[in-house]
Specification:
The protein contains 5 helices and 13 strands. It has a 7-stranded antiparallel sheet with strand order 2-1-5-8-9-4-3. A two-stranded antiparallel ribbon has the order 6-7. Strand 1 and strand 2 form a beta hairpin.
Amino acid sequence: MKIEQSQFTERDMSKLVKGAVVPRPIAWVSTNNEEGIPNLAPFSFFTVASMDPITLCFSVGGSGRVKDTLENVRTTKAFVVNIVNEQLANQMHETSKAHPPETDEFSITGLAAVPGEKVSPPRVVVAPVQMECELDRIIDIGSNSLVLGRLVCFHIQDEVYMEKDKVDPEALKVIGRMAGDYTHIDDFFVLPGRKGASRDSHETT
């Protein structure tokens, strides 16, 4: 089957694209508004945009009212990306619901918040990795907004950290987003053509 751009309106392209681009990492983004009320929400259009300078990015959908996360980032010029593991999956899902702007998602999920060291938004202290970012820019793409932030402080739990500055993928127990569901990411392998290569070796972009 081939679907050309002229046929997109006849198809549910959102489901097709989200079902094909998987698994997607989840940025559990914590922010706060100008009154200091914290907000926490997950975004699965998330990746590393650059390693020099180290820059993370996530996309915020534009359907309905402006999302609290985007409004807060515009106001405070900062955010924290928390990595979601299996133990935090249910609490992450709770924060994906449409809560009123004045809602403190840390409180309703029972999560402990700790202040950022370099930015004002709080961190999810139990998250295996927490990355503090200062806003670099926001790029509007149609009805969506691509948020880019420069990493200014990196926090990692001891049980996830390996020597020589590596992350233990088995201890991380990260989850990913599928089309409408989630997936475990815990099955690792080395390609046959790379016999002898270590699992944690990688290629540059």
